[in-house]
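Please predict the structure of the following assembly.
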Amino acid sequence: MTFRRTLAHVHTFRIPWIAMALVAAAASWAAAESAALYLRVRSTPVRSKPSLKDGGQEAVLYAGQQVQVLERSKDGDWVKVRFTRADESKSDHGKAEAVTEKGLKEGWVHATLLGEAPPGLEAKDAAWLSAGGEAFKKARTDVSDGYAKARKVGPGVLAELDGRYPNAEELDKFLREGQLGLYRPDWPSQEGGVTK
Amino acid sequence: MTFSPRGHGLWVLGALLGVGALALTGCKPKESAYKATENVSAYAREMGDAAGRVTNKAATRLGLVEKKYDYVRFAWGPGEKPLAVAPAYSFEDEREAGRALAAEFIARLGRFEHERVERYLNQLAAAIAAYSDRPDLPATVVVVHSEERKAWGLPGGYGVVTLGALRCCESESEAAGLLATMFAQSSLKQTLHLLAEQAAAAVPEAKDKPVTALPPEDFARAIQATANALLKEAPDAAFMAAADRSAVDVLVRLGYEPGGLRAHLARVQAKMQEESGGKPMKEYAWFKARETAMDERFSELHVLPTGRTVSARWRRECSVQLPAPKL
């Protein structure tokens, strides 16, 4: 009788708790699998394969952009991500962009460039991240321009300096030439290998 | 078979001795922070340009890049936090104040106009900004005619570097260290903090609103007071230490020789010592504080030298383009 009571007690109280714990564990596992990450550098190319050498460029991601992780490369150094912003996408090598039915884009990004928290961004509309110095032509600079004029700094000197800020493509070229950042030769791996 | 207490004690003692022997022989102790620091600075100083020619494979064989991946990951950890500035400045206000300060430096010292050098340095600064903790802050650099070996980070990503400071760099990693410290002064809002202080002292209304909201004559007073402070006084050692730590992080993230900034500072000190005729430098403590900050960061990251100084591009794009110093 006592055993039956005990069993009934377990059935009544423990099993829902165990079930809830199992559900919570499954939910956290699922969340970890499709975790949201953020780009923590100014920009990076999204590749069609987990490699800087093979495949083409699918799109460009910009600082703070949120992505959903779909899978990791075998060595864990590249992640396949899904993201929404498609306005800056472009494809070299003439390949079709990997756009899903829902209009989301997918591609491979080097894992080291993604962080769990968004970087500290302060600009409201940072058009210069992609366009470079060209974007500053639209910025309001009447206070500093007025001051420069009063200090006899030639008209256009400050605008010329602003224009030296490279666009995303020029920056990528600079990094690639110097083997810096994403292109450094000592990254854990520039080749993601066979995906799992 | 019986098991006597004495025998049992011997077993325990034996086990303890065994574990101790394993710990002593089997586990290689971590390289001490001191040794790691010495490696970085000595390697960067001694190898100089030759360091750029050491391939990664060779460096690995020499044991120079043993823990190369860990410290890259650590360098992406929580870094220095920007200072709180009162009154609050919007991003646009910060940019405008920095732009006006850049104009003030150009007016006082004169701009070194050289498209190739300017373009290259701005690309280098943009790379530093891109891998910093504020990747949306654009970096804009102007070179000025001065033989002082200085660089000033201004609000909003603007920066001023002297010809003298550029001449004291012998590789891109050293210049990257110099510009990374400069950019950190800007991104950590150190100069904006100074501007707010100077403005409040010069114009009482600046205590409540950003300088950009002041009438033009008050704005000018605030900008000039800040420029005076920047040009005449050495920056606060604690602020510089934070900027240097941040610069080390960016050098590591980009893959430059992490000791680049330390090597540049060593070169500046050597030149100053030479100019002072061997007398003790009054700036010794200031340099020492900066070196200590960098050494601490090296040991926190367990950083080891990479030997990636990127010297050839530096020579081609900048150092050979610079004019001879005016004597």
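The first helix of chain A runs from residue 2 to 33. Confidence is low (pLDDT under 50) at residues 86-97 of chain A.
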